Amino acid sequence: xxxxxxxxxxxxxxxxxxxxxxxxxxxxxxxxxxxxxxxxxxxxxxxxxxxxxxxxxxxxxxxxxxxxxxxxxxxxxxxxxxxxxxxxxxxxxxxxxxxxxxxxxxxxxxxxxxxxxxxxxxxxxxxxxxxxxxxxxxxxxxxxxxxxxxxxxxxxxxxxxxxxxxxxxxxxxxxxxxxxxxxxxxxxxxxxxxxxxxxxxxxxxxxxxxxxxxxxxxxxxxxxxxxxxxxxxxxxxxxxxx
Length: 242
Hints:
Layout: E1 2-8, E2 15-21, E3 30-34, H1 42-52, E4 57-61, H2 78-89, H3 93-108, E5 118-123, H4 127-136, E6 141-147, H5 160-163, E7 170-178, H6 184-193, E8 201-210, H7 223-241
Helix pairs in contact: 3-4
């Protein structure tokens, strides 16, 4: 595997981005990996590596670059948790969409990155970013996933349940059964809103799980559910990116 960390130039300053892809067999299809609220950490880098091992050029950007923050620290500390919430609430969909433009442009200049269909995924706060990226780049992004995403059904024009209809990408939503940020009524509303979508779409509820079930370092980690979500992601991207 080849791993690099790039300081990618944006209008709002450099964006630290972890890039990982196989050493052989390139160029490889691009996948944008949008982080969750606790920011960049080795746990996420390991998840990016796992995707890369099956043949992808994975980009994990620091979405908090405008605040000059890369890592959050110990979430057991109350001040750290408060800081994380402030950072999360300071991030908007337009900000991350501007970042997605820059990321894809950077990939287009790297011989290791494929020029064909790309994919994206987002956990927690970034589920909404992943779906919006697919809508923003309908000519490029062929598959997108939201993993226990938040703010999936809102009254905003850029709510995922609305923008999903602006792309023909295959969309996958993995939802925890117990999730105060996406309760079951939200999951039902999301599924209902996407019933008329013509492109392949799946909203899957993971029974017995809680928000964060795919992260090995979280108390909510559920190995069986986590492995199922990997199977879903790998087959989703395999169908659409090659």
